[in-house]
Design a protein that fits this description.
65% of the residues lie in helices and 2% in strands. The chain has 665 residues and is mainly α. It folds into four domains: 162 residues, Arc Repressor Mutant, subunit A, CATH 1.10.10.10; 81 residues, Tetratricopeptide repeat domain (Serine Threonine Protein Phosphatase 5, Tetratricopeptide repeat); 233 residues, Serine Threonine Protein Phosphatase 5, Tetratricopeptide repeat, CATH 1.25.40; 153 residues, no CATH class.
Length: 665
C-alpha cells in the first residue's frame, strides 16, 4: 500500500486512494511527525522520549515502542507477521521513517520550490501554484509549539513566504501584473516586514496603470518600517520609488518580441479557437473528440503539457461514457494514440481506469466489420495501458489489435497496434530481438506514411534493443536519427531518452566518475519532463547498477555505497536488501530477498534480476539462485538492463557465471 504523509497543516497520513489513515492518539501522530521532521534520519529512542515528554514517565521507552508498533500496523497493514518493516524501520537504537520524497507533502513542496528556481516564468508559475496548494494550515499543526518542530516550522514558513513572492514575480514577468496584486496585498497584511513583497506589490500596481496607488504603497511601507522597526526602506525600495517618480521606461511591462512565425501562429491559433468556441455548441459531442485530439498534441510537448494531458484525459473518457453512446466512447478512448516508449505507467491508477473503460466499451460494441477499426483502437489502448502488469490480457489484446490492423491495412492503426505489441514484449528475459523487429517495422512503416512520432518511437525501440545486444554502432545511429527528427518536429521528450542512452553508453564503456556524472546530468534533464513513471527511482537505480556493472565490487562493498536517503520509488523493494546488508543485518536482508516478487514485465526486468543474483550469491540462497539462473538464461549474451536504453548492470553472462559458481559451491 502506498502511503502519503502530510505535515503542511494538521499531521495526517493517507492511503493510495486518498483515504485518511486512523493514526490513533496524539502521541502516535507526534511520533510520526517527529520522524518526518528527521527527514529519513534515525531518531534514537531516548531522543524520542525527551521530545515527547517534558518529564518522561516510568516506562516511557516501552510506550514509544507501543506507539511505533501501532503506527506500523496502520502504515503497513499487509505486512506478514515478524516480517521486517519497510516504512517505519528500526535502525540501531532508534527509528526512521523511510518514506519516499514524493510521499511527504513538505518534501514535495521543497523539491517544487527548488525546481521552480531553474524554470522559465510560465513553467515556474505552474510549479509554484501547485506547490502552494499543498498547504492545509500551519506546518506540523498541533505540534507547532514543540521544541523539536520549531526549526523545521520556521524553515518551511520562510520557504512558503518566498514561494508566494516568487509566484508574484513570475506573474510580473509574464505580464500578469493585475493578477499579482490581490495575493501580494493579502501576503503583506500578514507579513508587513517583507520588503521584497512591498517592492513587488508597488511594481504590480504600477504596471497595472495604478501609478498613484503604487507610490502610496511605497510610502506606506516607509511608514510601517519606521514605526515598527525604526528602519528606513532598503535600497531596492528607494530606487523603485525614484524610478517611478521619473517614470523610468525600464519599469514598464516586458515588451513582446517583434512579430514573427511564432507570433503569427499564436494569432492563428487564438482566432481558430475563438471561432470553434463560437460555432460548436458547448454540449456538442464533437467537442469531446476535439479535446482528445488537442490532448494528444499536448502530450508530445512534455513537461506541463504531459501532466495536463493526464489530468484531463480521464475526464474526457468519463464524459463520453456518461453520454451512453459506446461508439462515441470508443472514438474518444481510441483517439489517444500517443506513442509510448516506457513500459512503466506514469499513473497506474489512471491506466487501470482507462483499461476498464475500454473493456466496458468493447463489450458494448457490436462485433461486426463496421466496428472493427474502432475495436482495434480499443484493443491497442488496452495493450498500451496494461504495460508493466503481469496478466495474460495485455499480450492477448496486443495480438488481437495487431491482427485486426493488418487485416484492415491501415498504416496509422498498425503503428498504434505495434506500440501495444512492443509494450507487451517484456514478459520474460531475452526478448530484445523481438523488440528490435517491432522497432524496424515501425520505422519503415512510419517513413512510408509520414507518421513522424512513430518513426521516432521505432528508432528509440531499436536503440534500446541494439543496446541490449551490445551493438552500440547501430544504437548510436538510431540515437542520432531520433535527435534529428526531434529537433525538426519539436519533440522535446525524445532528447531526454537519447541523453540517458549516452549515459548508458558511457557506463558500458568503462563507467567510473564520467558515467556517474553523465547519469546525474541525464536525471536533471528528467526533472519537469512530466514522466514520473520514468523519473522516480531511476537515478539511484542507475548508480547501483553502475556498481554492479563494475564487476569487481563484492556485494558488501556495493551495499556500503547505496544511499538510504535516495528516492528509490518503485525500485525500493530491490534496494532494501542492500540497505539491510549495509547495516550488517544479513538475516533480515535474506528474508526480504526471499520475499521479493518476480520483477514486473518491463524494460528493467533483467537489471532487477541481476540485483537479486548479486544478493543471492552473497547470502547463499541456493533455491533462489536456481530460479534466477532459469529466468536469466534466455538473455545470455546481452547487457543486463541495457534494453531500457537508460542503464546497465553489466553482462548477463557474468551474472550467470557467478550464479553457476555459487551453486557449484
Amino acid at each position: 500500500m502506498r502511503v502519503a504523509f502530510g505535515v503542511l497543516g494538521p499531521v495526517a497520513a493517507w492511503d493510495g486512494d486518498g483515504r485518511a489513515l486512523a493514526l490513533k492518539g496524539p502521541r502516535h501522530r507526534e511520533v510520526l511527525a517527529r520522524l518526518v521532521a528527521a527527514r529519513r534520519r534515525v531518531v534514537p529512542v531516548n531522543r524520542l522520549v525527551a521530545d515527547l515528554w517534558d518529564e518522561p514517565p516510568a516506562g516511557a521507552v516501552g510506550s514509544v515502542q507501543t506507539f511505533v508498533g501501532a503506527l506500523r500496523r496502520v502504515l503497513e497493514p499487509e505486512r506478514p507477521p515478524r516480517a521486517p518493516a519497510r516504512l517505519l524501520v528500526t535502525a540501531g537504537t532508534g527509528y526512521a521513517l523511510r518514506a519516499d520524497p514524493e510521499s511527504v507533502d513538505a518534501w514535495r513542496f521543497e523539491a517544487a520550490i527548488d525546481a521552480a528556481a531553474a524554470l522559465p516564468p510560465a513553467a515556474a508559475l505552474t510549479r509554484l501554484e501547485v506547490a502552494l496548494e499543498l498547504w492545509r494550515g500551519p506546518s506540523y499543526g498541533e505540534y507547532a509549539d514543540r521544541e523539536w518542530a520549531r526549526g523545521e516550522r520556521s524553515r518551511l514558513a520562510e520557504l512558503r513566504l518566498r514561494a508566494v513572492e516568487r509566484r508574484a514575480e513570475a506573474r510580473l514577468d509574464l505580464g500578469m501584473a493585475a493578477e499579482a496584486v490581490p495575493d501580494l496585498d493579502a501576503h503583506l497584511t500578514e507579513h508587513p516586514w517583507r520588503e521584497d513583497a512591498w517592492r513587488l506589490l508597488a511594481l504590480a500596481l504600477y504596471r497595472s496603470g495604478r501609478q498613484g496607488d503604487a507610490l502610496a504603497v511605497l510610502r506606506r511601507a516607509r511608514t510601517m518600517l519606521a514605526r515598527g522597526l525604526g528602519l528606513d526602506p532598503g535600497s531596492a525600495l528607494r530606487r523603485l520609488e525614484a524610478d517611478m517618480l521619473a517614470q523610468d521606461p525600464l519599469l514598464d511591462p516586458p515588451s513582446p518580441a517583434p512579430a514573427g512565425p511564432v507570433d503569427t501562429a499564436a494569432r492563428v491559433w487564438a482566432r481558430a479557437a475563438e471561432a470553434y468556441d463560437r460555432t460548436v455548441a458547448a454540449g456538442a459531442r464533437a467537442r469531446l473528440e476535439s479535446t482528445v485530439g488537442l490532448l494528444r498534441n499536448l502530450a508530445l510537448t512534455g513537461g506541463g503539457g504531459l501532466a495536463a494531458t493526464r489530468e484531463h484525459r480521464l475526464a474526457a473518457v468519463a464524459a463520453a461514457e456518461e453520454s451512453g453512446d459506446p461508439e462515441l466512447t470508443a472514438r474518444v478512448i481510441g483517439a489517444y494514440d500517443v506513442p509510448a516508449i516506457w513500459t512503466r505507467s506514469d499513473d497506474p491508477e489512471q491506466a487501470r481506469r482507462i483499461v476498464a473503460a475500454a473493456e466496458r466499451t468493447l463489450a458494448a460494441l457490436p462485433a461486426d466489420a463496421a466496428h472493427e477499426a474502432v475495436r482495434c483502437r480499443l484493443l491497442a489502448t488496452v495493450a498500451v495501458e496494461s504495460r508493466g502488469i503481469r496478466s495474460p490480457r495485455g499480450p492477448m489484446a496486443a495480438r488481437q489489435a495487431e491482427e485486426a490492423a493488418r487485416r484492415l491495412d491501415d498504416p496509422a492503426l498498425l503503428a498504434f497496434a505495434l506500440n501495444g505489441v512492443f509494450m507487451q514484449t517484456c514478459t520474460r528475459a531475452g526478448l530484445a530481438p523481438r523488440r528490435d523487429t517491432v522497432g524496424a517495422e515501425l520505422v519503415a512503416l512510419a517513413r512510408r506514411h509520414g507518421l513522424t512520432t512513430y518513426e521516432v518511437l521505432g528508432h528509440l525501440i531499436r536503440l534500446q534493443a541494439r543496446g541490449a545486444l551490445a551493438d552500440f554502432a547501430w544504437a548510436d545511429e538510431h540515437a542520432a536519427a531520433v535527435d534529428v527528427l526531434a529537433e525538426r518536429h519539436e519533440l522535446p521528450l525524445a532528447g531526454v531518452f537519447t541523453q540517458w542512452y549516452r549515459a548508458l553508453r558511457t557506463a558500458a564503456s568503462g563507467g567510473g566518475p564520467r558515467a556517474e556524472a553523465a547519469y546525474r546530468a541525464a536525471a536533471a534533464r528528467l526533472e519537469g519532463a512530466g514522466m514520473p513513471g520514468v523519473e522516480r527511482g531511476l537515478l539511484p537505480l542507475a548508480l547501483l547498477c553502475l556498481d554492479l556493472a563494475d564487476g569487481t565490487l563484492p556485494a558488501t562493498r556495493i551495499a556500503e555505497r547505496v544511499d538510504p536517503a535516495a528516492d528509490w520509488g518503485p525500485y525500493r523493494p530491490w534496494a532494501e536488501p542492500f540497505l539491510l546488508l549495509r547495516d550488517d543485518r544479513r538475516a533480515e536482508a535474506l528474508a526480504v530477498l526471499r520475499a521479493l516478487p518476480e520483477p514486473p514485465p518491463d524494460l528493467l526486468y533483467e537489471a532487477l534480476c541481476c540485483l537479486q543474483c548479486v544478493l543471492a550469491v552473497e547470502l547463499g540462497d541456493r533455491d533462489l539462485l536456481g530460479s534466477l539462473r532459469a529466468r536469466l538464461l534466455p538473455a545470455a549474451g546481452e547487457l543486463a538492463g541495457a534494453g531500457s536504453g537508460l542503464l546497465t548492470a553489466g553482462p548477463v553472462d557474468r551474472h550467470l557465471a557467478a550464479v553457476t559458481a555459487a551453486l557449484a559451491r
